[in-house]
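Researcher: Sequence recovery benchmark, item below. Answer with residues only.
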């Protein structure tokens, strides 16, 4: 899709997108999202009470940014709502991989629950994530089959296809877990990503994928008020929610690219892989930045510290709400920018995102270090 046609046809495409959603049934979309939101919203207080009684809480320590002991089973409420709503409203006869998606995500969910309750080693979590990824890649037969022009590469061989798909699923599963460090961040970023994917799936006539995206977004939005504004009922998503969210969004990223390959030029983007990066921009670039900084210091990539973007912004004086709003807005801006710049092609758009990513993530860190150095050489009067 070239840029000229993209801008000329923008209005027509928006009308067509909403006509596709109308074809799916506004009533079904609104009802499914409402049910997902309400189940989460009313199930959270019950989850909080049970988590407190069982001692399933995150305790304050030197690395966390919260005070006191907060229940960590919010993901259980979110995904109970998600699974119920999907089973009620999504026709699995029209989506062959739905059973495999549920099976794989349940594996991740149960692993996250065990980690929240008693702890589990990183090696065991990685092993389960690989199994869940294999369910999607081999049983559901969903994997990247083309780089769609990145560095001039299109169709890729089977081994490379499986490898890239495995890295994508396992990587994004952990990316969303790693950014879950302050109130509303993981839920907010994932909601923006899911809404973008849902509207696109609706635009190209993928009714079931649109519904699943919107349902999970609805479940997340039902969780956010308790996570950000809750007092007696405050709760965290925990590994239960963050890992499962990343896994499902990774599935959608694969579907986004593979569905795009099957579309006519009128609907297809010629830079889908690069747009995929923009959809998960904040969790992906923040994780890469943190891993690079840890490796440069001779540390293990998963060793805990305060190198994440939200830590840096908090140190610069932003509060939790401002930091979350900034990063969620940043992710939304990159999504809109990538869709608008899709005419640039996969390679050009990829490197543009790479440069912009380095700028927006390393500049705040540079400002923070400048302030730290200034305070070191500042003497009391």
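Model:
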């Amino acid at each position: 899709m070239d840029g000229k046609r993209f801008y000329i046809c923008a209005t027509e495409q928006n009308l067509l997108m909403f006509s596709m959603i109308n074809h799916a049934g506004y009533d079904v979309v609104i009802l499914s999202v409402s049910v997902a939101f309400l189940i989460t919203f009313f199930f959270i207080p019950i989850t909080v009470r049970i988590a407190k009684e069982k001692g399933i809480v995150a305790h304050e320590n030197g690395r966390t940014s919260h005070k006191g002991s907060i229940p960590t089973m919010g993901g259980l409420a979110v995904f109970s709502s998600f699974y119920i709503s999907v089973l009620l409203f999504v026709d699995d006869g029209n989506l062959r991989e739905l059973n495999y998606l549920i099976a794989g995500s349940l594996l991740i969910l149960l692993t996250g629950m065990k980690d929240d309750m008693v702890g589990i080693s990183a090696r065991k979590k990685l092993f389960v994530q690989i199994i869940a990824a294999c369910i999607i890649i081999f049983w559901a037969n969903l994997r990247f089959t083309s780089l769609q022009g990145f560095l001039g590469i299109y169709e890729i061989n089977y081994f490379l296809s499986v490898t890239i798909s495995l890295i994508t699923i396992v990587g994004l599963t952990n990316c969303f877990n790693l950014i879950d460090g302050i109130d509303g961040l993981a839920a907010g970023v994932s909601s923006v990503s899911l809404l973008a994917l849902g509207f696109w799936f609706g635009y190209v006539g993928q009714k079931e994928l649109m519904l699943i995206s919107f349902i999970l977004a609805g479940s997340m939005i039902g969780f956010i008020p308790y996570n950000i504004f809750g007092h007696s009922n405050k709760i965290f998503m925990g590994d239960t929610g963050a890992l499962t969210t990343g896994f499902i969004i990774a599935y959608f990223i694969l579907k986004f690219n593979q569905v795009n390959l099957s579309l006519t030029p009128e609907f297809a983007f010629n830079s889908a892989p690069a747009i995929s990066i923009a959809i998960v921009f904040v969790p992906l670039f923040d994780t890469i930045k943190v891993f690079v900084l840890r490796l440069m210091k001779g540390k293990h990539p998963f060793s805990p510290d305060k190198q994440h973007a939200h830590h840096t912004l908090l140190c610069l004086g932003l509060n939790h709400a401002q930091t979350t709003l900034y990063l969620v807005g940043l992710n939304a801006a990159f999504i809109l920018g990538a869709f608008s710049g899709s005419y640039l092609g996969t390679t050009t758009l990829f490197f543009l995102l790479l440069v912009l990513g380095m700028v927006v993530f390393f500049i705040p860190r540079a400002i923070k270090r400048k302030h730290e150095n200034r305070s070191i050489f500042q003497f009391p009067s």
